[in-house]
Design brief:
- The chain is of the alpha+beta class.
- The protein is 18% helix and 43% strand.
- The chain has two helices and seven strands, in the order αβαββββββ.
- The strands form two sheets. Strands 1-7-4-5 form a four-stranded antiparallel β-sheet, with no helix packed on it. A three-stranded antiparallel β-sheet has the order 2-3-6, with no helix packed on it.
- A hairpin with an 8-residue loop joins strand 2 and strand 3.
- The longest helix is centred in the first third of the chain and has 13 residues.
- It is elongated, with a radius of gyration of 16 Å.
- The N and C termini lie far apart (42 Å).
- The relative contact order is 0.24.
Length: 136
């Protein structure tokens, strides 16, 4: 009964997907997560990569978010998504939102953004909201 209510609510919400799911990565295990994302909501599958990139060196912490968007729709699109970083204890250590605009049909766009994270060890990224809208 609860599953049916959740499915009905997810369908009723329309184009935006507010569920929390792991961010896609390039590891073999992520292919399964990506397949599940495609089944759950088509537009979120356009976010093909969203991960942390540790560029720290010489004792200086330098951790960035990096992503790849591939527009699978037939119109120019804008993308926005919310994310959170959670440590091994389940504590949210960072969160934010990202934006990628004017992505042409079939086009791939890559982006990056600095974080205030001190480490990538034990950190899990989750997508907490995702939207694709037509760009004009």
């Amino acid at each position: 009964m609860i599953v049916i209510v959740i499915v009905v609510l997810a369908i009723a919400m329309g184009d935006s997907d507010e569920s929390t799911t792991p961010a896609p990565t390039r590891t073999p295990a992520s292919e399964t997560a990506q397949e599940q994302t495609q089944e759950a909501g088509g537009e979120r599958a356009d976010l093909t990569r969203f991960e942390l990139d540790d560029r720290s060196e010489a004792g200086f912490t330098n951790i960035w978010l990096v992503w790849t968007i591939k527009n699978s729709s037939s119109e120019k699109s804008d993308y926005s998504w919310e994310w959170e970083a959670v440590d091994a204890d389940g504590t949210r250590v960072a969160n934010g939102s990202q934006l990628e605009t004017d992505v042409q049909p079939g086009q791939t766009a890559e982006g990056e953004f600095p974080t205030t994270l001190k480490t990538v060890e034990g950190i899990k990224l989750n997508i907490t909201g995702f939207n694709r809208t037509a760009s004009y």
